[in-house]
Amino acid sequence: MTDAKPFPPTDPPGLSSVEARLQVSGNALVDCCNALGSEALSFLAERIREDFETQQQMLHCRSLPELAQVRARFLQRATDQYTAETGRMADIWARALDGMLHLKLG
User: Fold this and answer.
1) Are 79 and 88 in contact (CB under 8 A)?
2) How many CB atoms lie within 10 A of CB 35?
């Protein structure tokens, strides 16, 4: 009888460590996706609320200059909010990636 070893090896050195690292980083990625989804939904809900509020303000405008002013405020606020939201999303990704790069196992 020969001592034939399977090819590829079924348990190469360090495989369990790699598997553990992949599982933990996979969990971190799922957590990141959940955080991104939650943040996006909160942002979207706030934007929709502000859209309706602005429409109400526009309906009550009595002149074109007043309407232009409401619209300008809306556009400036939306731009500021989208910029801030981009930063929050980037922070979520950065924290997730940092966590995956500094995994502590067992």
Assistant:
1) no
2) 17
